[in-house]
Amino acid sequence: MQLFADYHLHSRYSDGRATIRQLAEAALAKGLESIIICDHGPNNIGVGVKSAGTFLEAKEEAQKIARDFPELELKVGAEANVIGLDGEIDVPEEVYRQLDWLVVGLHPYIRPADLRTGWSYVLGNQFHTLTEARREKCIRRNTKALCEAIRRHKPDVVAHPGLGVPVDIEEVARVCTETNTAFEINTGHRYQQVIDIIRAANTGVKFAVNSDAHFTDTVGDFAYGIALLQQAKIPPEQVINARH
């Protein structure tokens, strides 16, 4: 399977180690045709952008840089954090509507929208491994929050579902299918298993294989994701950044 695009990269605007120009150069060196810079939302503690307005600054910079890379489609989106149990995210609609792409995901260390979320989600996920009952409760709560965010904001991709914050993979995939949201196979963290991909695929969801690169060396590093797709027998038609 051949992949032509990487739709989840991080730059120095958040916790990436490369500039947008350096990421573009790395993408061309890997033979990619399209990349999207998706830095972390501002409520991701220690790694997020300074403010939601930073995404618009990044887009303006990318538009200027793109003139030097006519053979590469260079776009800017956001990796928004779910910060509320009812699907609130940390990138306002008036901002993400001006961007090219929206990725939404759960992250364990965020500034929550309210105390209820802070107590039950942020703290709850720190102790979800203590008992099976606590874990099941966390999975239900996390899944609801993520699915509400997907329904409310209809992102292009859901980021690394299940990474560090357990969810019901099949339920998330079903909601992704309903909203035409791609389900990410994340090759940067390499935590997903073949059975997870099969369960998600059975809902009819489309996949996006992304590197989640924070360094130029890992831009377009798709080998882990391609191996999962092959083992799960996922056809190229079910992958949004694959050649059909």
Give the N-terminus to C-terminus distance in angstroms. 9 Å
Radius of gyration: 17 Å
Beta strand %: 15-25%
State the order of secondary-structure elements, H for helix, E for strand: EHEHEHEHHEHEHEH
Q: What order do the strands of the largest sheet run in, or round the barrel if closed?
A: 1-2-3-4-5-6-7
Characterize the structure shown.
This protein has eight helices and seven strands, in the order E-H-E-H-E-H-E-H-H-E-H-E-H-E-H. With 244 residues, the chain is of the alpha/beta class. The protein has a single domain, classed as Metal-dependent hydrolases (TIM Barrel), CATH 3.20.20. Helix 4 packs across helix 5 (132-153), helix 6 crosses helix 7 (194-201) and helix 7 crosses helix 8. The longest helix has 22 residues, at 132-153. The radius of gyration is 17 Å and the shape is globular.
Short note summarizing the structure:
With 244 residues, this protein is α/β, with parallel strands linked by helices. It contains eight helices and seven strands. The chain has one domain: TIM Barrel, CATH 3.20.20.
